[in-house]
Design goal:
With 111 residues, this protein is mostly beta strands. 0% of the residues lie in helices and 46% in strands. It is built from no helices and nine strands. A hairpin with a 5-residue loop joins strand 6 and strand 7. The radius of gyration is 21 Å and the shape is elongated.
């Protein structure tokens, strides 16, 4: 690890068990491999009767499904005809790789 300043460092460079994941330059510009992302999921009742949202299942990459129905705002479930609601989820994403990041979401509702 050259500390002289004459060798460029690149985010994700590794030095033993340490990996460079963020830095700040002399002008206080920050680069970081970790970015905050907010997902907004919108649910519309386009049917002819009220619908009670029972599941909001989300999977990231090849992980397991997680039920986010607890994020549905109080008072907006069940959805009346023509109504909609949204939920938001904030996550931190590692952006210093070429890996694909995919999110799959589906919902179930009962009358």
């Amino acid at each position: 690890f050259d500390t002289s300043g004459s060798v460029d460092l690149v985010l994700t460079d590794s030095f033993g068990s340490m990996t460079l994941s963020g830095c700040t330059d002399d002008e206080s510009n920050t680069e970081d491999c970790f970015k905050n992302v907010t997902y907004t999921y919108k649910f519309d009742n386009v049917g002819e009767i009220y619908m009670d949202i029972t599941k909001v299942l989300r999977k990231v990459n090849d992980g397991n499904y997680e039920n986010l129905v607890g994020l549905v705002p109080p008072g907006s479930n069940p959805l009346q005809v023509g109504e909609n609601t949204t939920i938001q989820e904030s996550v931190t994403v590692y952006t210093c790789s070429d890996n694909c990041y995919s999110v799959e979401v589906f919902a179930e509702a009962d009358p």
